[in-house]
Amino acid sequence: MPLYEYRCLGCRKRFTLLVGMVAEPASRTCPRCGGADLRKLISRFSVARGEDDLLEATADPSALGDPEDPRAMADWMRRVSRDMGEDLGDDFDELVEEAVREEMDGPAPDADAGDEDADSGAVDDT
Q: What does the alpha-carbon distance between residue 24 and residue 124 come to, in Å, rounded to a whole number?
C-alpha cells in the first residue's frame, strides 16, 4: 500500500497517510486540526533491496574504488557494513582509522622504544 505525504493548508502540519487500494478512498483529514484543505506533496520514495541485490552491488568492482587507497578501502568497508545492516561498532572505526593513518604516514613511533636502553641497564660512558 502506498504512502502519501500531505500538508494541511490550515495548520501547516506535514503528515503521511497510508492509502489502501480499495474501492472507497479513506477520508483525508489533518491529524492535528481535522482540516480537509490538504496539498499532496512530492516526496522521496525507496525501493527495498534484498540481500542478493546488496551482495551483488558489494561485489561490483566499480563500487570498491582504488584498492591501493587506504581511505577508499575504509569508506568501502563502512558502506558495506551499513548496507548489510551490521554495526561494526566504534572499535572497528578506530582500528580502520589507525590503519589508514599508518598506511598514509607510516607506522606510529612506539612509545616504549626510547625506554629500551634505560630498562636494559646499559650505561653510556660518553
A: 95
Q: To the nearest whole percent, how much of the chain has pLDDT over 70?
A: 71
Q: What is the pLDDT of residues 46-57, one digit of tens each?
A: 666 677 777 777
For 27, other C-beta atoms within 10 Å of its C-beta total 7
How far, in Å, CA of 84 to CA of 53, rounded? 11
DSSP 8-state symbol, 33? T
Q: In what order do the strands lie in the sheet with 38-40?
A: 14-18, 3-8, 38-40
Give the CA distances from residue 33 to residues 30, 63, 70, 78, 110, in Å, rounded to whole numbers and listed in that order.
6, 48, 54, 43, 66
Grid-cell match 551483488, residue found: 56
Give the CA-trace dihedral at 17, 19, 23, 24, to 10 degrees. Answer: -10
